[in-house]
């Protein structure tokens, strides 16, 4: 059976843009329910500036409160050495740095140019090697940017290659505003795959235009075997106005199960988790699969 790794980003990407205060205990229970549903990679929080992203200000409490399960990874975002050091002090063993393929988005998101961001990441990779910490790299705006419009696939390939060469064990390709279609995502993947092996790529697709599941399918056919998703389709990006959450994890699991792939996830438990967190946030689950199964 073909194995597919799902990186659950709900507790981070899903919650980072929430305006309402979410108790740390609720975030911890979400992470625990996700692990109980079989997810093995759960992005737990971000070690970014609390002035920029207030919802992730409780990062140290999250790491301290985790009931770590054997075999489960709890990566976090770290934009610079300061974030990396705080993460390691909190017991983190995997971080993700995040660059963009668009200059304007890089400025809005992390307050520096693409080249400057790479310069800031270099010491993070160096420190990570010393601490035995794994580093994942993200590229945002792999299809389009909310400020600069369409992004050239070659530009995505160039940034992905930089992150790969610096030492990312995997590069996650973010369609931040969910504007991609299977055609544009495949053009992007073809360019990136000339620089980074497909086995080290992940698809990170937001669902703003309802294309994310189609983009997962196209990427799977291309050979990608790692996908980022968010339970109940939670989320949005603080620096991409109007962008909705990631593709819902429930929908990705259902799609991949239909293809005969093994995700290791118990769909029913995941659906229960999606219904639970949606209730905590006072809204309906965005996952079509969850809605369908709850209506049964
Ligand atoms: P800056 O203001 O340029 O940084 O922010 P600075 O180095 O000049 O520092 C300014 C202040 O921030 C200082 O504090 C620093 O100590 C503090 P002050 O002296 O003013 O009190 N600071 C920090 N505090 C906590 N943790 C840190 C840290 N670094 C500096 N790590 C910075 C630069 C990157 C910090 C800022 O722009 C930031 O935090 N941005 C947040 C970006 C973010 O979290 N965006 C959302 C996640 S990315 C995403 O969602 C896309 C993704 O899902 C893929 C996709 O969908 O495309 C991954
Ligand atoms: Mg994202």
Tally of helical runs: 12
Gross morphology: globular
Main sheet strand line-up: 2-1-11-10-9-6-5-4-3
Q: Catalogue the unreliable spans.
A: none
- Secondary structure class reads alpha/beta
The ligands bound in this entry are: 3-hydroxy-3-methylglutaryl-coenzyme A, magnesium ion
The amount of helix comes to 40-55%
Number of strands: 11
The whole-angstrom Rg is: 17 Å
Which whole number gives the mean pLDDT? 96
Distance separating the two termini? 29 Å
- Assembly status: single chain
What kind of sheet is the major sheet? 9 strands, parallel
**SSE run:** EHHEEHEHEHHEEEHEHEHEHHH
Percent strand = 5-15%
Organism: Azohydromonas lata
Pfam family, one: HMGL-like
GO molecular function, one term: lyase activity
Domain Pyruvate carboxyltransferase: 4-271
